[in-house]
Design brief:
Among the domains are: about 190 residues, Beta Barrel (Maltoporin, Chain A), CATH 2.40.170; about 170 residues, no CATH class. Helices cover about 15% and strands about 50% of the residues. The protein contains eleven helices and 30 strands. The chain has a 17-stranded mixed beta sheet that branches. It has a three-stranded antiparallel beta sheet with strand order 24-25-26, with no helix packed on it.
């Protein structure tokens, strides 16, 4: 990959100006970062200006201003995730290890103006198999070097944040202070894809703005009542307001003129989307700290928030905290030790509240684009909002010890914590009959606990040399305690799927760590031997069965089911045996491929027979033997592939139409003892309602059937 990646270079420059006198001080600084990335044409420039000032207006009144301005400009940030624009994803999925990276970097376009690729779509044939054309466009994935030179990605970020503060000393013990702070952010993004990419051409502009303002007032009191007893306290209030806005405009149906990145260059009416949110929290808080003989310390605090994102009846929530620490090293029998310099025990318990995102209390319609002619369209969201939300609440306890030894050249800090978050706000799956796929609820609780251990030492220390070493160890246990229970404590939801790929998915699973990764594996016994499921558990599968002329089973879909999903347990044993047959045929294992193939076909029949009560085991044995004979006399690989396809797609018009589109597998006539005409079975499904709804498609589909290999009497939906 040395011919694709570059050596990243970062240049940093800074300059500052500062000054001070008896009245105050200031510091003005400027810094610049200029960076070229490791991927081609990636670059970033950041300029920062900082200002920090303090000034004594009078002996009792002080003022200060702190401000920072940051501007960041980036070109061709690397796209992440599963995307054609991410070269790292392409290298691991659509890449061939023998490819000449330098060649496809140096030659990115053909003489005809097409993208130069190692993976063209290739020849195009007519229905008779005759060559009609050659499609040079890339298949599945673009040339990564072409992507980095032709995709357009530019963004600019501007951010200003800082505060102005005042403090006034009423007397030696009492003072007041106030602070106004703001954080303003603006982000502009432009993205474009030209012609000749695997992805459709497009241009997108996004503009995001946000601002948070905080105004805080504090009353501070500090008093040493004696040499042994100290006290300080704070009473304050805070007003927070947040504002966010996002505007997105995107072309539709591609660009008209290649590489003219402008919304007006859209082939169809451009899509626009606007989002705006406001949020506010008003708070009062207080804290006290007591000290006794610089040995025993007690801290108490409490806060109450009123949030605009919770319903009025539940928008107030209170959360306190308390901690205590004891410096054992202040005791007389330790104080004079030459080994132990400092020992402190500590314990604390604290709560923290959290509110919801804006606009989660009532349902509103969401706009759809484009319009239906001149009429706007709106839809009900998939998630139902909740007008009865309450705040989340986290409770944490912690115990710890800090020890310093040998003139503080060795220190040990150890602690244990236990944190429980309750009434978590998240979407819980619900029945689609409600009109929603999920509902926002206070439903979950999650626990985090663990140990933290830190040791620091100075094994060597002289007047001119010092060597410090440190070690950190952390052990954490995370568990989703519960998701949703009813009033009797019975679990209603124990797992929520958060998305994934064909290989694995992320789940929030009761009793497991948050965001557990789930994949697929065989079932094993105690000896780690595979267990084959003779009886697949398919309760509630919405299909009946009927026999077709060749003796295989055809699933018949009830007319009120539009797009069913096959259960995960479907034909597990059959597909397992067929995989073993495939592996043996490729020389990976020493098992008998024919035996594995025969077992796989029989398991396919037995699974269906067991579940639906249709006795077809005799037919299974006869047909399986015939298929094995067919495989050994012609092509074992082809028959295994055909039977794997049948087991993987035991039913479904989508599977049938996919075979028709891709011509895989090639289902050729075979000597089937149950069918004198020699037809091989294929499995078809067709909801009867589609005959009337899509009559033209149905007729076209039937006309495309091959009389030699297809059952024309089967009801088939041709997916055009």
């Amino acid at each position: 990959m040395i011919h694709f990646f570059n050596t990243g270079i970062t240049l940093m420059n800074s300059v500052s100006l500062s000054g001070a006198n008896e009245k105050g001080s200031f510091r003005l600084g400027y810094s610049n970062v200029d960076q070229t990335g490791t991927t081609p044409n990636g670059a970033l420039q950041r300029n920062t200006v900082n200002l920090n000032t303090t000034y004594n207006l009078t002996e009792k009144l002080k003022a200060g201003v702190t401000m920072s301005y940051i501007k960041t400009e980036a070109q061709n940030r690397n796209i992440t995730g599963y995307s054609n624009g991410n070269p790292l994803q392409g290298f691991t999925q659509w890449w061939q290890t023998q490819l000449d990276v330098k060649r496809i970097k140096d030659q990115q376009n053909t003489t005809e103006g097409y993208q130069y690729t190692w993976n063209p779509k290739g020849i195009i044939t007519d229905d008779s198999g005759n060559l009609t054309a050659f499609d040079p466009n890339p298949n599945y994935f673009d040339n990564p070097s072409w992507v980095r030179n032709n995709f357009m990605q530019e963004d600019t970020r501007n951010r200003v944040f800082g505060n102005a503060n005042f403090s006034y000393a009423i007397n030696d013990n009492l003072s007041i202070s106030s602070q106004f702070g703001t954080d303003i952010s603006q982000f502009s993004l432009m993205e474009g894809i030209p012609f000749r990419s695997v992805d459709p051409s497009k241009y997108v502009e996004t503009e995001r703005k946000s601002q948070e303002n905080n105004f805080e007032f504090r009353l501070n009191y500090q008093k040493d009542f004696s040499e042994d007893f100290t006290f300080n306290g704070i009473l304050g209030a805070n007003r927070m307001r947040q504002f966010t806005k996002r505007i997105t405009a995107a072309t539709s149906d591609g660009l008209v003129v290649d590489r003219f990145y402008n919304i007006s260059n859209s082939s169809a009416a451009a899509n626009t989307d606007t989002y705006e949110a406001n949020k506010g929290i008003n708070s009062i808080f207080g804290s006290t700290s007591f000290g006794f003989k610089d040995m025993l310390f007690l801290d108490l605090s409490a806060r109450n928030d009123w949030s605009s994102t919770l319903p009025k009846k539940n928008n107030s929530y209170f959360y306190p905290a308390a901690s205590i620490s004891f410096a054992l090293s202040e005791l007389d029998f330790i104080k004079g030790s030459n080994v132990v310099n400092f020992v402190k025990l500590r314990a604390s318990i604290a709560q923290a509240g959290n509110d919801a995102d804006p606009y989660r209390l009532s349902d509103v319609y969401s706009p759809l684009t484009p319009n239906f002619g001149s009429f706007p369209m709106y839809t009900v969201p998939n998630s139902q909002q909740n007008p009865d939300l309450v705040n989340e609440l986290t409770t944490e306890t912690e115990f710890g010890i800090l020890v310093k030894l040998f003139n503080s050249r060795l220190s040990i800090d150890a602690s244990y914590y236990d944190r429980l978050t309750e009434d978590q706000i998240f979407n819980v799956p619900t029945s689609s009959s409600t009109g929603y796929s999920s509902k926002l609820l206070n439903a979950g609780s999650m626990k985090n606990s663990g140990f933290e251990f830190q040791i620091n030492g100075t094994p060597i220390q002289t007047e001119n040399f010092r060597w410090d070493i440190g070690l950190n160890l952390t052990q954490q246990k995370n568990e989703v305690v519960e998701l949703l229970k009813d009033e009797n404590g019975e679990t209603l939801v124990e797992s929520i799927n958060m998305g994934g790929t064909w290989a694995a998915d992320l789940r929030i699973q009761e009793g497991k760590p948050y965001m557990t990764l789930y994949g697929q594996d065989y079932i094993y016994d105690d000896s780690r031997l595979q267990i084959f499921a003779d009886d697949a558990t398919l309760e509630g599968y919405p299909y009946g069965l009927e026999s077709n002329p060749s003796g295989l089973i055809t699933a018949k879909m009830s007319s009120n089911i539009a797009s069913p999903d096959a259960p995960a347990a479907w034909l597990t044993a059959a597909y397992t045996y067929l995989n073993r047959a495939d592996a043996t045929n490729l020389g990976w294992t020493s098992e008998d491929a024919a035996s594995m193939l025969e077992m796989g076909i029989q398991k396919s029949y037995e699974t269906l027979s067991s579940h639906y009560g249709v006795d077809i085991t005799a037919d299974a044995a006869t047909f399986a033997a015939a298929r094995v004979s067919d495989a050994t006399s012609t092509s074992m690989a082809q028959v295994i592939g055909e039977e794997k396809w049948v087991a993987l797609y035991p039913e479904g018009f989508e599977a049938w139409s996919e075979w028709r589109r891709t011509d895989y597998p090639i289902l050729t006539p075979s000597p089937d003892p149950l069918n004198s005409s020699g037809e091989i079975a294929t499995r078809y499904m067709y909801p009867t309602s589609e005959i009337s709804l899509n009559g033209a498609n149905y007729s076209s589909g039937v006309s495309n059937l091959s009389p030699a290999t297809d059952n024309n009497d089967s009801k088939v939906w041709w997916d055009q």
